[in-house]
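P.,

For your records, the input lines for the assembly:
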Amino acid sequence: MAKCKVSYAPSVRRLPSYLLIVRQSLAHGDEYISGTLIANELNLEPIQVRKDLSITGITGKPKRGYPVAPLITAIESYLNWNNRVEAVVVGAGNLGSALSGFPGFRQHGLYIVAAFDADKSKAGSKIRDIPVYQLDDLSTRIPELGVSVAILTVPSDTAQDVTTKLLEAGIKAIWNFTNVKLKVPDDVVVQNEDLSSGYAMLSVKRRIKSASFMGDAI
Amino acid sequence: MAKCKVSYAPSVRRLPSYLLIVRQSLAHGDEYISGTLIANELNLEPIQVRKDLSITGITGKPKRGYPVAPLITAIESYLNWNNRVEAVVVGAGNLGSALSGFPGFRQHGLYIVAAFDADKSKAGSKIRDIPVYQLDDLSTRIPELGVSVAILTVPSDTAQDVTTKLLEAGIKAIWNFTNVKLKVPDDVVVQNEDLSSGYAMLSVKRRIKSASFMGDAI
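Structure tokens returned:
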């Protein structure tokens, strides 16, 4: 698999938090929002916020900050969240069902249009308004739907086999919630969402915090 | 909220992937594993792997690599994953249920011992072998269980209120799956798990990839 390097990965990861705040600011009727206000809200340094936002091509005005509506447009364009993207969820267990119903996705232009599951008894049912099909129907359903993005939430031991079928069906981007390193050709992107990484961060923060609050320890 | 900075955050986030590979290597009976092998497996540069692993205090031997068993111990100790940690899941919807049943957590020493939900009809039920209690019982159940870690999967509009109750009940670490910036005192750690961040990364990768594969575009 060819690497697809994102130069400003930590900045990209923070953009959705900025977008949330700036959208709230728009809803409040604000014309400008300062980098310092965003920084305070998110417990970041103002210089960091300015640096992150600069990747979208926008610059603030001294003393006024960023114009709210153009800032939203800049972030959404950078992320391509101003275009509707349709995706399928593959693996309609608890995680797949949670993601199918995640309210935030539509705000980002992401529409889940179908789910697939190996359990044939689920076929014909719906997760909210999303139809569930059997896994074997991937190869016909995905081309029919014209979808090129898949969210993968199947058990790890079937992840690569299912991925191979997804690729054959025309999938070009996989948001991978399994812990399997998927093998895909160069023209396919994979974003690994490893929950263990988040837990590793929490674990190290706990260790650091308990060391710094030794006085409070029992 | 005081910041809890983790100096090597990207390295910490990669440690679980390394651990998975090194555990497989142990299961295969290997005595040593090379940084280059780990790098190839994860599509990283060998220098990056060596740098990441060095935060745990371990160093490899020229030509042989890292001793497998001590490497596992070093990563687990760094992450404090060699100690059993008990946690509660707060919000037993689809995401909470998925996390309650996530098989990888126990391998990291994380044991979910109870779930709570606002829906009183869920009280008394079980998610796999984990008892579900009603949300109002937090204040008595959490001190009884002696748990200090909570996984927060409630709807965003109740996240701060529930957090306040969790803090009163003795919770000191929150793995936050809501998009709310929680207000907590200095001795409490929060790890935000924002699914939008992962989707932002996928979106930018798709944009970069389609630019570099312009020739294939329709």
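Two observations worth noting. Chain A is about 45% helix and 15% strand. The mean pLDDT of chain A is 91.

Regards
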